[in-house]
## 1
Amino acid sequence: MIKTMIVFGTRPEAIKMAPLIKELQNDSNFDVRVCVTAQHRQMLDQVLEIFDIKPDYDLNIMKHNQSLYSVTADVILKFEEVLKKEKPDIVLVHGDTTTTFASALSAFYYRTKIGHVEAGLRTFNKYSPFPEEMNRKLTAALCDVHFAPTKRAKLNLLKEGIKEEDIFVTGNTVIDTLKYTVQKDYKFREPILNRIDYTKKVITLTAHRRENFGKPLENIFEAVANLADQFDDVLFVYPVHLNPNVRDAAERILRNHPRIILIDPVDVDDMHNLIARSYLVLTDSGGLQEEAPSLGKPVVVLRDTTERPEAVLANTVKVAGTDKHNIVDVVKRLLTDEEEYSKMAHAINPYGDGFASRRIKDALLYYFGYRKEKPEEFKGSDLYV
Ligand code: UD1
Ligand code: UDP
């Protein structure tokens, strides 16, 4: 059996690791252990509950308004204890958070194999997003096997000197998750979401990037308030991230507007079904840039760069940056120009076909010599390089 230690700490990692955990647990070739760092506490627990995941180890590191230093140090030290106890054949990390990098570094010091899920995303700008661009680059340098969601991600890794035989193009596991969560007659857990009039143009908003704290975040919120003032057929729904840097600014600028609904973070099935009922999505999130295009919803990205250019190439995502006037102009156009809107509102799936977890499992079986043929790659992203 392949003793596999899956480690993650934040909401998006959990959402994207959940289908892979299920896939590996259902295969008798794998002995699966789950370790959560709990870099996020409440937002992680929300996901664990929905997918009924019971971690074998919970490092419980979250502190109020924590620093990158404390997260990094705590993960490295506490994960060492888990590694010593479990002696896994392979550690699987996900994406680009500080949990990702620090747990990969800890696993490297322990000299165990490491696999990187969602490998190869790049903006080529060290500080955007910060610290994620360096987290994922450094993680790639530490890993032995790389599960690239798209062809473009694979090409990025090849350029950094990663060997082709160690890269598998699998699609993104978030599309596997969407298959479970999105339903036609869905009833929301959050009662406010059941009371919304979806014949209005509902705009789902999220924002939490560190490089946007301060003025850029204020610009974003002022643009939203301005749009809500101008359009009375529009309703903004904003599940506010628990980071205090985000919450304080959101409360100050957006609370008490009749067309802006601020709510706490919602469960992932609520979120996916909310996107499915929205007119468009405004976000600086990574995951939403993958989910919304799959659901046929245009995305306006509130950042200067994106590591997910596939949907920009397919014209369902526009990068608006954090300039207040620019955000207002881009969103206004999508609210008033039907032709422009319908050009962007088509479902595309450059990020996956719902079988990424199975491909990752097959790749692991191949890597450890349990199967002879290299698994077929995900081809749906080949046009977007
Ligand atoms: C982290 C990741 C980011 C990812 C994001 C997903 C890093 C450096 N950042 O950013 O890449 O996109 O998660 O959401 O790895 N908090 C709570 N409860 C929670 C979660 C957060 O109270 O469940 C508050 C705490 O005060 C915490 C703060 O938010 O200290 C910041 O959390 P942290 O994980 O450091 O940063 P995020 O902005 O969440
Ligand atoms: N999400 C959620 N509840 C919310 C807001 C977001 O479940 O209230 C989901 C969202 O659908 C996506 C993921 O969380 O799957 C994105 O997480 P986040 O934006 O925090 O991180 P990023 O993707 O930017 O790393």
## 2
Amino acid sequence: MSILVVGGAGYIGSHAAHILRRRGYDVIIYDNLSTGYKELAEGFELIVGDIADASKLGAALARSDAVMHFAAHAYVGESVENPRKYFKNNVTSALALLDAVVESRVRKFIFSSTCAVYGNPVKVPITESNPRQPVNPYGATKLAFENALEAYSQAYALRYVSFRYFNAAGADDSATIGEHHEPETHLIPLILQTIQGRRSALEIFGDDYPTADGTCIRDYIHVNDLAEAHVLGLEYLSRGHSIAMNLGTGRGYSVREVISAVEKVTGQSVPIRIGPRRPGDPPELVAEPARAEELLRWKARRSLEEIISTAWSWQQKSQTAIREV
Ligand code: UDP
């Protein structure tokens, strides 16, 4: 079975490509390399193309049995400042991808959605029936695509899984692929860069939230746990269903707890500075992962310590592994 991994030269897509290959699937990576890196696609067939390029996609789809779509812009702050960029890529171009799929014989589609579709949750842990009311343009674009998938699946017999990711982190054990964003905005890589002396201090965005230690709580999930759910998602699609589901651990950690865990794993102390709240950050986002556990027989297995230790191994290599930097 051949899987077209769209956005497979990015962080989560490259991990999915590796896990798919280890499970015996054929993989074709399709990526425009705008935020992806060819180094992360090394060893795979890589088609450099845009998701809006129907003819290039058509040729790739003719050789594929299913699509995984990871190609999206994913910075909340940037989406507030530059919503055009987000709606153009994550909705307009993504709909061109979906049209190309409908025009092909492929009827299995796995979509990288996000817990940002929930906005400020009415209850934590968050179930899939929480109202979808995004509070930033990034979440709005992902919700728009979820809605399109629902309508297309009814009309065109397309089967889909929308995976709503919580906070993806960590790296493959091989340390040959990992998280690399320019600019980096995510907590764990920023803490590690601080330890490396590349930043003077880690700024904590607010310590006056209504949480036990005043800092925000998130559900950090190892990227390979996410990737493994995608493989199980393919099997679920083969059973003929469509669904949206959370991918998280069900356990939250505060920013301060993550910093302490990094200090424990690396044996080094992290200089910190308390800054103002970052606009749009809800105090607590934690998944209720029961649906994925029940329907996929999947569970996030890797601990926060494993997330940090694999991220740390990768972080120490990434500056040479990715040549653009
Ligand atoms: N955070 C922080 N300092 C940073 C980066 C992030 O305090 O330099 C906090 C952020 O406010 C949030 C958590 O760490 O509560 C996770 O943020 P990240 O950007 O990694 O992921 P997000 O939850 O925004 O998807």
